[in-house]
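request received
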Amino acid sequence: MYRLFLALRYLRSRLVNLISVGGVMAGVAVLIVVVSIMDGFQERVRSTVRGSLSHIILTPTTSAADLPPFEQLDSLLRAQPHIEASSPQSNLPVFYEFETERVSAVGHDGMAWHQMEMIGVDWEKEAGVSELPNYILASYDAENPFWHPLVSQREKDTVLVSRTFAQNYLIGQYDRDGNLINRYGALKDENNVPLKGRELLEGCKRLIGTELRIWWGAVRRSDGGDRDIKTNSKNLIISGVYDALDAVDDNRRLYCSLPQLTRMGGFEHSYLQAKVRLDDYEHAKGVQKSLANLLEGRFFVETWEDKKRMFLQAVDSEKVLLIVVLSFIILLAGFVILATLTLTVVEKTRDIGIVAALGATKRGILSIFVWNGLLIGILGAILGLGLGYWFTENVDNVRAAIKSVTGRDVFPPNLYHFETIPTIWDWPSVISIMIGAVIVAFVAGLLPALRAARLDPVAALRHE
Amino acid sequence: MSDVTATPASSESDPEAGAPVILSAKGLTKSYKVGGTRLEVLRGVDIEVHEGEILAILGTSGCGKSTLLHVLGWLDSPDKGHIQFEGKDRGSIPGKERARLRNDVMGFVFQFYHLLPEFDALENTMMPAMIKHGPGAWRTQRRASRDRAKALLALVGLTERMEHKPRQLSGGERQRVAIARALMNEPRFLFCDEPTGNLDGKTAEDVRNLLWGLNEKQNQTMVIVTHDARLASQAHRVVRLKDGHIDEAGGAALVQEIDLD
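response:
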């Protein structure tokens, strides 16, 4: 009984132990916060990326003649277990042409190109496989954001643009009445600040119906079968604005209807990809395998993680790196525990002799100081849990507080495109951080404890 | 108080006569390395302790009294020789069991009190009981131990001082706490190392009276080492430690000398 009793008293009577407790607390709290934010960030990024990519992507490997009509493929796919929906898609690299004062690859006549990808989708099927329909900010026709009345009037084609693209690249855009929208870019105010809320929606409405010019190469085959690429350009009518919260990809993606893209690109295949949505992404690997067997090499089968492997790995390794670096705080706290307990043992040498004389075993003396270290670890871990929880729950308030003090936003929304800092409270991670801290404290306490247990009680009694 | 004085009192006359030997040592030697030279402190000590007696070991400072006491009390091990407690040899008892015997059977009173500074008088007194009982047993023993510690502190006259830390107590008070602590687990022996050596005349007398009272009332066996011939002279038996040997006659002669004064 005396072991815990002495350990508690030594802990309480030494202020320096509070520093150790504080160190463990800080380490545990910081790790918990960082893991929560990184988990949240990772999940948000995954859902964003997955949003436009769907779970499994099939790419045909056959000639256009052998390509099954999509309806046929769709019914085949949906007969498979775990598959909920599928949707066709085609992609076409395009150049968006815009005015600039700078010299560019296009020449020095005041125009420049921005390389983009035009994605053709079947709007009715798209909702089944991706989040894109949920990302529509504004459109002329809520049912079909690719439709605009000018299409039928002037035989034009339409395009769905992203908010980020509009803000960064739609410079010198004129509205339908011929007025310049904003010389810094659409969907921004006079001070070059992105619009928000109601103003953003108003801005989108003003943008819809305006035109943007794109260039692309369409493949043509001569009668002899030789391939030739013909350059085309066309003004497209903006029929809607979306915001997929992906700063990088949104800048490069334009959407249009699949038949329009097939026509523009001169594709022989009626679709270049089939996107598949599963009931649960957990089954992706199994479905991937069974689909590869089922389709007998006519399609290349990938999961969205295969497509985005590098990116996901980058996010993941960033998280691991942060955890490794921040674990050093706990390790440092371990060294503080080691130092203070070593001092305590030296200082308490005579007491150790006394309890030995009173009948304490070597094991008993060992456990006094092991308990001392453990108590520091346990106390620090519990306080760190509390602090970490509070910080995670109030992370946006903390962010606001930091901004008001330093004038710097630690999580700028125009960079990450999340209005709030995403967090996920994952108990297994939190518990393992706490257990890790307690283990560090235990090991740090063990060395001084062994030293105490090895003391000769008679010599210790004489110690002044 | 009843539990403190539970041990039956001995007969008034000559308590050690015919009483069984409960601790005996034969041929104890012990040496230390000091600097480069080996210092032989004990050179073959033979000694017996009878139940219920007060045995004084008299000797000048630095003659090895404390070492002898530590060896007899199993705090330290002899280089050679045997110590037997109730017929059991020290060498045949494993370390863990030795620690238990030290806790349960032996009580120590040191010249410098050796109280734990972070704990108050009551907690210091209870410490041997805490060491004796594991966390499970402590739950049932706590109240009884507390009551016994309070009774012991009352016995040594410190009822008012129970919640004082050692630094708030005088030398005499600290020594009385140390005595109460030594008695906590009802030890068979009390080993006292210069129990009055650090105290002034009046306080020393109080502590002496306390110890002798314990012997009279509870038949407490005591081994006292001291350089104070006056204190030694009041023991039932006095031996003298000189040149690493026990000199029975020397002790008696010295005592006679003092009695003549």
